[in-house]
Design a protein that fits this description.
The chain is α/β, with parallel strands linked by helices. It has one domain (about 10-220): Rossmann fold (3-Layer(aba) Sandwich). Helices cover about 30% and strands about 25% of the residues. The protein is built from nine helices and nine strands. The chain has helices spanning about 10-15, 15-20, 25-30, 35-40, 55-65, 115-125, 140-150, 170-175, 205-210, and strands at about 45-50, 70-75, 85, 100-105, 125-135, 180-185, 190-195, 195-200, 215-220. The radius of gyration is 17 Å and the shape is globular. The termini are far apart.
Length: about 220
Protein backbone atom coordinates (compact mmCIF):
# COMPACT_ATOMS: atom_id res chain seq x y z
CA UNK A 1 0.00 0.00 0.00
CA UNK A 2 1.27 3.48 -0.88
CA UNK A 3 1.25 5.80 2.09
CA UNK A 4 -0.33 9.24 1.59
CA UNK A 5 1.38 12.47 2.53
CA UNK A 6 1.43 13.15 6.26
CA UNK A 7 2.90 16.15 8.03
CA UNK A 8 5.72 15.42 10.48
CA UNK A 9 3.28 15.78 13.38
CA UNK A 10 0.87 13.30 11.77
CA UNK A 11 3.69 10.82 11.15
CA UNK A 12 4.53 10.79 14.86
CA UNK A 13 0.89 10.01 15.73
CA UNK A 14 0.39 7.24 13.15
CA UNK A 15 3.16 4.80 14.03
CA UNK A 16 0.96 1.69 13.82
CA UNK A 17 -0.55 2.60 10.43
CA UNK A 18 2.80 3.59 8.95
CA UNK A 19 4.59 0.56 10.38
CA UNK A 20 1.93 -1.76 8.93
CA UNK A 21 2.08 -0.26 5.46
CA UNK A 22 5.76 0.66 5.27
CA UNK A 23 7.49 -1.06 2.37
CA UNK A 24 10.04 -3.65 3.45
CA UNK A 25 12.84 -2.36 1.24
CA UNK A 26 13.73 0.00 -1.58
CA UNK A 27 14.38 -1.45 -5.07
CA UNK A 28 18.17 -1.13 -4.76
CA UNK A 29 18.09 -2.86 -1.38
CA UNK A 30 15.83 -5.66 -2.62
CA UNK A 31 18.22 -6.46 -5.50
CA UNK A 32 21.13 -6.13 -3.02
CA UNK A 33 22.88 -3.41 -5.05
CA UNK A 34 23.46 -1.26 -1.97
CA UNK A 35 24.79 -4.25 -0.03
CA UNK A 36 27.08 -5.13 -2.94
CA UNK A 37 28.59 -1.64 -2.95
CA UNK A 38 29.11 -1.59 0.82
CA UNK A 39 30.85 -4.99 0.78
CA UNK A 40 33.74 -3.27 -1.00
CA UNK A 41 34.46 -1.48 2.28
CA UNK A 42 36.12 -2.93 5.39
CA UNK A 43 33.58 -4.25 7.87
CA UNK A 44 34.98 -2.15 10.72
CA UNK A 45 33.86 1.16 9.18
CA UNK A 46 31.34 3.33 11.00
CA UNK A 47 28.02 3.44 9.12
CA UNK A 48 25.09 5.80 9.65
CA UNK A 49 21.74 4.83 8.11
CA UNK A 50 19.22 7.66 7.89
CA UNK A 51 15.56 6.69 7.49
CA UNK A 52 16.15 3.02 8.25
CA UNK A 53 12.47 2.02 8.04
CA UNK A 54 11.99 -1.61 9.03
CA UNK A 55 15.74 -2.13 9.18
CA UNK A 56 16.23 -4.66 6.37
CA UNK A 57 19.39 -3.04 5.03
CA UNK A 58 21.02 -2.75 8.46
CA UNK A 59 20.14 -6.38 9.28
CA UNK A 60 21.70 -7.51 6.00
CA UNK A 61 24.87 -5.58 6.82
CA UNK A 62 25.01 -6.94 10.36
CA UNK A 63 24.74 -10.45 8.94
CA UNK A 64 27.77 -9.64 6.76
CA UNK A 65 29.81 -8.66 9.80
CA UNK A 66 29.27 -4.89 9.85
CA UNK A 67 28.75 -4.09 13.54
CA UNK A 68 29.42 -0.34 13.76
CA UNK A 69 26.00 0.73 12.56
CA UNK A 70 23.95 3.66 13.82
CA UNK A 71 20.29 3.89 12.80
CA UNK A 72 18.17 7.06 12.71
CA UNK A 73 14.50 7.56 11.85
CA UNK A 74 11.51 9.62 12.94
CA UNK A 75 10.17 6.55 14.79
CA UNK A 76 11.24 2.95 15.39
CA UNK A 77 9.54 0.69 12.85
CA UNK A 78 12.03 -2.16 13.28
CA UNK A 79 11.65 -5.27 15.37
CA UNK A 80 14.34 -5.28 18.00
CA UNK A 81 16.88 -2.83 16.56
CA UNK A 82 18.01 0.28 18.38
CA UNK A 83 16.96 3.40 16.47
CA UNK A 84 17.82 6.97 17.42
CA UNK A 85 14.67 9.04 16.94
CA UNK A 86 15.17 12.23 14.97
CA UNK A 87 13.05 14.40 12.68
CA UNK A 88 15.52 14.64 9.79
CA UNK A 89 13.72 17.61 8.25
CA UNK A 90 14.18 19.89 11.23
CA UNK A 91 16.56 18.40 13.80
CA UNK A 92 20.33 18.23 13.59
CA UNK A 93 22.09 14.92 14.14
CA UNK A 94 23.55 14.19 17.58
CA UNK A 95 26.98 13.23 16.28
CA UNK A 96 30.39 14.81 16.11
CA UNK A 97 32.01 16.28 13.02
CA UNK A 98 33.80 13.73 10.80
CA UNK A 99 32.45 10.76 12.78
CA UNK A 100 31.27 8.33 10.08
CA UNK A 101 32.94 6.58 7.14
CA UNK A 102 29.67 5.93 5.29
CA UNK A 103 26.20 7.50 5.39
CA UNK A 104 23.15 5.88 3.78
CA UNK A 105 19.93 7.66 2.84
CA UNK A 106 18.00 5.09 0.83
CA UNK A 107 14.57 6.28 -0.37
CA UNK A 108 14.29 8.92 2.35
CA UNK A 109 15.20 12.30 0.83
CA UNK A 110 12.06 12.55 -1.31
CA UNK A 111 9.97 12.28 1.89
CA UNK A 112 11.58 15.20 3.71
CA UNK A 113 10.07 18.66 4.06
CA UNK A 114 13.57 20.11 4.41
CA UNK A 115 16.16 17.94 2.60
CA UNK A 116 18.68 20.79 2.64
CA UNK A 117 19.32 20.24 6.35
CA UNK A 118 20.02 16.55 5.78
CA UNK A 119 22.67 17.27 3.14
CA UNK A 120 24.39 19.80 5.42
CA UNK A 121 24.33 17.43 8.37
CA UNK A 122 25.63 14.50 6.33
CA UNK A 123 28.52 16.64 5.15
CA UNK A 124 29.27 17.61 8.74
CA UNK A 125 29.28 14.10 10.28
CA UNK A 126 30.98 12.35 7.34
CA UNK A 127 34.75 11.99 7.35
CA UNK A 128 36.74 13.60 4.51
CA UNK A 129 36.75 11.09 1.67
CA UNK A 130 33.79 9.26 3.24
CA UNK A 131 30.97 7.89 1.07
CA UNK A 132 27.36 9.03 0.96
CA UNK A 133 24.87 6.77 -0.85
CA UNK A 134 21.35 7.91 -1.71
CA UNK A 135 18.43 6.39 -3.62
CA UNK A 136 15.91 8.83 -5.09
CA UNK A 137 13.27 8.94 -7.85
CA UNK A 138 14.85 9.44 -11.27
CA UNK A 139 13.20 12.80 -12.00
CA UNK A 140 15.60 13.77 -14.81
CA UNK A 141 14.89 10.74 -16.99
CA UNK A 142 13.48 11.16 -20.49
CA UNK A 143 10.32 9.44 -19.27
CA UNK A 144 9.99 11.94 -16.42
CA UNK A 145 10.55 14.92 -18.73
CA UNK A 146 7.79 13.75 -21.06
CA UNK A 147 5.54 13.24 -18.05
CA UNK A 148 6.25 16.80 -16.91
CA UNK A 149 5.61 18.19 -20.40
CA UNK A 150 2.23 16.45 -20.62
CA UNK A 151 0.98 16.69 -17.04
CA UNK A 152 3.16 19.11 -15.06
CA UNK A 153 4.28 16.24 -12.80
CA UNK A 154 7.56 14.35 -12.60
CA UNK A 155 8.04 10.60 -12.24
CA UNK A 156 7.63 9.35 -8.69
CA UNK A 157 5.63 12.33 -7.42
CA UNK A 158 1.83 12.40 -7.41
CA UNK A 159 -1.04 13.38 -5.14
CA UNK A 160 -1.49 9.82 -3.89
CA UNK A 161 2.01 9.19 -2.46
CA UNK A 162 4.21 10.80 0.19
CA UNK A 163 7.00 12.08 -2.07
CA UNK A 164 7.36 15.85 -1.77
CA UNK A 165 11.01 16.89 -2.37
CA UNK A 166 13.24 16.79 -5.43
CA UNK A 167 15.95 18.99 -6.96
CA UNK A 168 16.33 20.33 -10.46
CA UNK A 169 19.74 19.80 -12.03
CA UNK A 170 21.01 23.29 -11.14
CA UNK A 171 19.72 23.17 -7.56
CA UNK A 172 21.34 19.74 -7.19
CA UNK A 173 24.64 21.21 -8.35
CA UNK A 174 24.39 24.23 -6.02
CA UNK A 175 23.45 22.25 -2.93
CA UNK A 176 25.51 19.09 -3.37
CA UNK A 177 28.35 19.39 -5.85
CA UNK A 178 30.28 21.94 -3.82
CA UNK A 179 30.39 19.44 -0.94
CA UNK A 180 30.46 16.03 -2.65
CA UNK A 181 31.72 14.58 -5.90
CA UNK A 182 29.68 11.96 -7.73
CA UNK A 183 31.54 8.63 -7.80
CA UNK A 184 28.94 6.53 -9.63
CA UNK A 185 25.27 6.26 -10.54
CA UNK A 186 22.95 3.31 -11.09
CA UNK A 187 19.36 3.15 -12.34
CA UNK A 188 16.47 0.76 -11.93
CA UNK A 189 15.52 -1.29 -14.98
CA UNK A 190 13.41 0.81 -17.32
CA UNK A 191 10.62 -0.28 -19.62
CA UNK A 192 8.38 1.02 -22.38
CA UNK A 193 4.81 -0.03 -23.08
CA UNK A 194 4.20 -1.44 -26.55
CA UNK A 195 0.64 -2.58 -27.24
CA UNK A 196 0.05 -3.01 -23.53
CA UNK A 197 3.19 -5.09 -22.97
CA UNK A 198 6.14 -3.90 -20.89
CA UNK A 199 9.36 -4.17 -22.89
CA UNK A 200 12.56 -4.01 -20.81
CA UNK A 201 16.19 -3.55 -21.87
CA UNK A 202 18.93 -4.04 -19.28
CA UNK A 203 21.06 -1.28 -20.73
CA UNK A 204 22.67 1.63 -18.86
CA UNK A 205 21.57 4.39 -21.25
CA UNK A 206 18.08 2.95 -21.56
CA UNK A 207 17.71 2.62 -17.78
CA UNK A 208 18.98 6.17 -17.26
CA UNK A 209 16.20 7.45 -19.51
CA UNK A 210 13.39 5.08 -18.59
CA UNK A 211 14.21 3.75 -15.11
CA UNK A 212 12.16 5.29 -12.31
CA UNK A 213 14.80 5.11 -9.55
CA UNK A 214 18.37 6.33 -9.21
CA UNK A 215 21.20 5.31 -6.87
CA UNK A 216 24.02 7.84 -6.44
CA UNK A 217 27.34 7.31 -4.67
CA UNK A 218 29.04 10.48 -3.44
CA UNK A 219 32.40 11.11 -1.85
CA UNK A 220 32.93 13.99 0.57
CA UNK A 221 35.29 16.58 -0.85
Amino acid sequence: MTLPYYSNEEIKSKKKEIGTNLGNANYFTRICKVQELIKKENNDIRILELGCGRGKLSRDLMNEGYKNLTLVDIDNYTEGLEVNLKDLSFEKLDYSNNEFDLVLAIAIIEHLENPFLLYREVYRVLKPGGKFIIAIPNVLSFKSRINFLLSGNVTGFNKHNNHISFFSRDVFDKVIKNKFKVVDRYYSKGFINILGKKIRFDNGIFNKNFGTKELIIFEKI
